[in-house]
């Protein structure tokens, strides 16, 4: 009998539209002869399954729905929700309470890695290099002199718990710093300000594949904009070169550091880590535990370079969750 697989998509954050695209790619890539697949939309105002044009309300008591008087339960959930509540651990904790298997890392890992400041604090303890950073809450007084003393200029102002480059600004002058902080506060009440690292940006997926930790081919990112912002990521304003044009020595360092990050954080499932290569040394920026799965997303590009089809990539995640 075929397993019922829920592909959850949407979410409550600015990344909802991207998540819907990721969910569609997952749905269209999995083998419908092997699984009974359902698109499950997790939106602020309602949770529902969509079959053709009909919507069926999700019962949040046990994450089921009823169609023609028949109750449908799910054997496994494929998490394609970026941001809140899919990537911050909230939805994963809910599935854990219900005893429903899912493709994500455990709750604590999801919650930890969604918080950039907390992730950096763990990573640094293991000798992994990062940019200098300054953390603040929106209720804190904005002391631009103190911030610049810590991180210098230019610097990056980021929401502490957000993705897809929403709310990020690169700041060159002190007089622009406060506006950048207020812009980041539209996405999150916690703000992380980091020093600018002058080097080559690379991204690398690390996944569990066929029971082993697999580091995928490295992607070099060349943005047409000032940095790898939303427009560069999703509107073609960048070149994403896989495999990256880096030396064998740099490649080995990135691979080893990415694998170390994955193990240090006790990760499982999908991940994609970002680094800046400064004088040949990788500096860790952040890790994404629900990376984009759209056709233009980095991890699918890397999987293709590794001769892993999207069908195999997504099927592997489900099989590992079920087993």
Describe this structure in words.
The chain is α+β, with helices and mostly antiparallel strands and 323 residues long. It folds into 3 domains: 3-103, 3-Layer(aba) Sandwich (Rossmann fold), CATH 3.40.50.20; 112-129 and 198-289, D-amino Acid Aminotransferase, Chain A, domain 1, CATH 3.30.470.20; 133-195, Dna Ligase, domain 1 (2-Layer Sandwich). The chain contains 10 helices and 18 strands. The strands form 4 sheets. Strands 4-3-2-1-7-8 form a 6-stranded mixed sheet, sandwiched between helices. Strands 13, 14, 15, 16, 17 and 18 form a 6-stranded antiparallel sheet that branches. Strands 9-12-10-11 form a 4-stranded antiparallel sheet. β13 and β14 (212-215) form a beta hairpin. Mean pLDDT is 93; it is low at 228-233.
List its traits.
323 residues; alpha+beta; Rossmann fold; Dna Ligase, domain 1; six-stranded mixed β-sheet; 10 helices; globular
In short:
The protein contains ten helices and 18 strands.
